[in-house]
Amino acid sequence: MENSPLATVDIVIIVGFLLLVTIVGYAMSRVASNGIDDYFLGGNKIPWWVLGISTSTSNFDMAGTMIIVAVVFSLGYKGFLVEIRGGVGLSLAFLLVSVGKWLRRSRVMTSAEWMKLRFGTDRPGRTAHLLSAIANIVLSVGMIIYFSKGAGKFLTHFMPVSEFYATAGMVSIGLFYTLMSGLYGVVFTDVIQMILLTFTAIFVTVKAFDMTPDVTFPEGFLSLDLENPGATGQALLGQDPTTWEPIFAVFGICVFLWVVRSSLEGMGGVGGYTDQRFFAARSEREASLLTLEAIVLSVFRWTMVAGLVVMGFHLISTGGPGADIIAEDPEQVLPVVLGQMLPAGVRGIVIAGLIAAAMSTFDSTLNAGAAYIVKDVYQSYLNPEATSKQLIRVSQGATVGLCVVGVSLAAVVPDINQIWGLITMGLGGGLFVPLFLRWYWPRFNGYGFAAGTGAGIVAALIFNAALGWPLYYSFPTILGAALVSSVVVTLMTAAPDEETLVQFFEQVNPWGLWGGVARRAVELGRMTEEVLLERTWERITDGISLFFSVPFQVSLLLGGMALVFHDWTKFTFFALVAMVSSVGLYFFWFKNLKSPEECAVDDLKYAAGEKAADATDDDEEAAPAPAP
Q1: Secondary structure of the chain: what % helix, strand, coil (to 5)?
Q2: Under 8 Å CB-to-CB from 145, ≥6 apart: which residues?
Q3: What is the set of domains in the chain, with CATH numbers?
Q4: Distance, CA of 3 to CA of 588 (rounded, Å)
Q5: Which of 4, 318, 338, 586 to pair with 264, CA 20 to 30 A apart?
């Protein structure tokens, strides 16, 4: 199909949007130039509602939306089950009730720096720190490849240029404002992008809602059962058709593995740009609130997905232009529908919104990836005495370097789904076990984390990328390799020192097997029995809240899809689930959040403790050496 023509008004809207985000990003450059805390965390001054919008926008990416539309178009509601592997963002339900505030309490800049808090600053802690930084940099490059491939594939439908040049043009703009203003530029341009995305989602949803009565869905499209989806199994795009049937014959097993994957990710921490939003929050209360906002805003993405699917079926039923293309390749549903079914002007706004979605993922990944290079590699190991200006310059160089590498590698990736599968169920899968164990098993040490991470990544590259094993073989093998390596190496080496464990528990209060450490903290006078009881009650209410947060998120998203599909039975059911889970969250989660005043007191106590520790270190350095 030839490129869909853009009217003059469409071009004006798209160019105007790109100019606006460029200007806003440049305007933020002054406030981001004071140091890397401002450049990568916004100085912990960014309001929670801005970070919440940014979190939602960053997960509302163009390439991911193309995949989700393709999978739902092929499988109906079962496509939602497929996208539990990462597209649903189910980890937000876990971040909402516990992990999000744990990350904020950690008071670090990156997920790699967090390793020093958990494992200490001796050799095991440094080993975990360095390997975590390398793994997150590799994943950042993978995400940039994924973004670049999806953006290029989409834009070539509307621009008479190749994928590479289409991507390069958009990347240049995102690179400019990210380079100039760091996280400030990322999150405040995300607010503009969310406005466009919201309009896009509402317009597509309303238009599709009116079309639905005239559309006939394939048999089984509106079913959520775990039976073999059959001949419509085009969700595994990019694979030989002969491999579909064996995989979907064990569809229930695959769904179970996707749920395991998302649960491990949620309970262990996502890493990358998502963790960065929690590190940047002004308080642990705001870290929790921003997650709720991100969950609610994600409804727009899924109603838009359902709407695009309806439009795709409508196009096929009427035999419109491009119908044969989307019937053959569901990844083309999104660009074909937008090019053929939207009026001039609206098409420009919608395309600008999807460009915004792509750029929000790109700039977030770029900024977070650069933070690992600067904070966890350059400053930690290459130049510990670097000045603020030097760190800013290295940050900008790292940003450019990541961008060039990712965009260049995207040129050799055959399709979007392949790189997404490798990231979510391959390389990501290799990290889930050690990321999970770090929170819940006190005996787990830095060497164990490094071994588990290394073994998981190597296994992912061998069984997923090189051998191409199907999911139900590769994923358990990858998890098993990471688990065995983590446990064996941990038990063969020394445990983290007592002071590190007590300090971590006192500061973060995680779930897990921390009873012995808690009792030791009381014995050392680090906390009273009353405080320990309060912390125990917090963990209990958080655990109960989890049984409401997961149904809340899932019912919101599926309920939105059911509304667009006119599936009133499921819509009523999911609406009731959402209401009941909302009540549960109110009593067990929201009412137990710390007040702004309590959060301020905690921050003051932490700052006082840091000053006291620094003073002690200075005294020890200044003390005369003992007499021989």
Answers
A1: 80, 0, 20
A2: 406, 409, 410, 413, 419
A3: 8-272+279-604 (1.20.1730.10)
A4: 53
A5: 586
